Please model this.
Amino acid sequence: MLVAVNILGVLVYLAIAFLFSKDKKHINWRSVAIVLVINLLLAWFLTGFQVGRDIVQGAANGFNWLVEVSYQGIIFALPNWVTPLYGGTAKSMNFITSALLPILLIVPMFDILTYIGVLPWIIKWVGRGLSYVTGQPKFESFFAVEMMFLGNTEALAVSKLQLQTMRKERDLTLAMMSMSCVTASILGAYTQMVPGQFVLTAVPLNILNSIIITNMLNPVKVAPEEDTIAKVGGAGAAAEAAEADGAEENGKREPFFSFLGDSILGAGRLVLIITANVIAFVALAALIDKILMLFNPWLTLEHILGVIMFPFAWLMGLNVHDAFQFAQFMGTKLVTNEFVVMGKLVGKINNPSLFNAHYRAILTVFITSFANFGTTGMIIGAFKGMVDKEKNDLISKNVGYMLLSGILVSLMSAGIVGLFVW
Model:
């Protein structure tokens, strides 16, 4: 029975995308069908076959290994922040030490892969392959893969030349797609808090589902003559775009250690930004709860969001109790961010008496994305500095569509994984 509900849920999420489509007549149903089949096969392979599970578990173990290596740097500076298991003296590790400080190693590592050309090469050829198989425009496919490694604002920054030359409707598609990614360099933090195999399963599924959902919400017919890819970080790109691919504006390669220093500083800023956001959002949520409980002790932000999101959570194939709890996690994630929810799940989500296998899988997949209210502001800000007023105004007017796209992609990814994990 619950499997049937889960299947119904996936169909409902697609129906919502169709209902809110800006141009139903021009939806590329062939492409939608192809990507949906790939999605189902990939989810089945990664969750239903031992070799698939071994691949994602191996990748998760790889990120965990990187995190453990990063602890050596933390021990050198702050030995009382790391537990004896890793060579430190702390009785326990806090959220910043276990999840965020490892970013200081992982971000520079990915930037080095970009500097030497490995990451751009992978993005280029995987993007071309995705375009060939799915029938999607070349740059949209390229950008989907780019997001998987670089994150939303970084991928936008190195695509400035393309954003300036494309039609505004295609720019809107990229803005909507940008709601559904994560940055590869931050996956290590996620795997320290929730099951790594489902975190890494969510990443490719989110990319595929972003193609499906944006193709339905904002279908844009691209003529062959405009289906081209401008050089990423090309001559017309800004300094930040050039920096992202390891080059300076005059075309000369930036010295490696200068590049590495900038990368480390950027990683440090990212740690501070995440820390500040988590502290502020948790405190603001607690303040709102205190105010609401003055009127009724039951009235909290989580309960209100739980009521609003309950129908979508129930369609994941959960019982009523679990669906209401899941809905509260969903709502909290959308209002705050994924780190706030993951922080609540640390030490609990792997307990089978609290979260069965199906619940654990769909919850992890749903929260593994940047889809929240705050991300819309980041994306609008990124576009504002790169495109003209007409394009920026169109994106600003479609904040609702951006948020809807991010939510539907997360629901689709979680619902599809849920079909194969019980």
Remarks:
- Residues 232-245 have pLDDT under 50 and may be disordered.
- The chain has 21 helices and no strands.
